[in-house]
Specification:
Layout lengths: L3 E2 H7 L6 H9 L3 E3 L2 E2 L5 E2 L4 E6 L2 E7 L12 H4 E3 L3 H13 L13 H10 L19
Antiparallel strand pairs: 1-4, 2-3, 2-5, 5-6, 6-7
Length: 140
């Protein structure tokens, strides 16, 4: 039974784009095996289940092959099995539906949708509904 470093395996199995990003995820505590956070140098074996937290979802992968060389995208199913529970994918769908609703006030420009609703709210078409004149009358 062979072993491989977790950071190399995460990169080789195409879970992360670069090995550096995979190592950073390990250091930040986003990668765990059996609920315990691990270091990038941890050796993994076939059959272990790895949890990868990419907010808002925690993905789970079963190691089928321990590799340290990157493989093509078509060969990924031979290397790992995605065992992520369906409720995690529901979280992902909910976050896609909600969009930018949770964006804090003052953090960046409004989205196109938000800007259109603001423009619709502030248009001048409602001013004609009032009976008073907007021009001032002068008394001489």
């Amino acid at each position: 039974m062979s072993e491989a470093r977790i950071d190399k395996w995460l990169w080789a199995a195409r879970i992360f784009k670069t090995r550096t990003v995979a190592a950073e995820a390990c250091k930040k505590g986003r990668i765990s095996i059996n609920g315990s956070q691990i270091k990038p140098s941890r050796m993994i074996k076939e059959g272990e289940i790895i949890q990868v937290r990419k907010p808002p979802v925690t993905y789970s992968f079963r190691v089928l092959q321990t590799i340290e060389k990157r493989v093509g995208a078509k060969l990924v199913p031979e290397v790992m099995e995605n065992v992520t529970p369906p409720d995690q994918y529901e979280l992902l769908e909910l976050s896609k539906i909600s969009g930018f609703v949770d964006r804090a006030r003052g953090t960046g420009r409004p989205t196109k949708k938000e800007r259109r609703s603001l423009d619709e709210f502030t248009t001048l078409e409602f001013i004609d509904d009032f009976d008073f004149d907007l021009e001032e009358e002068e008394d001489f």
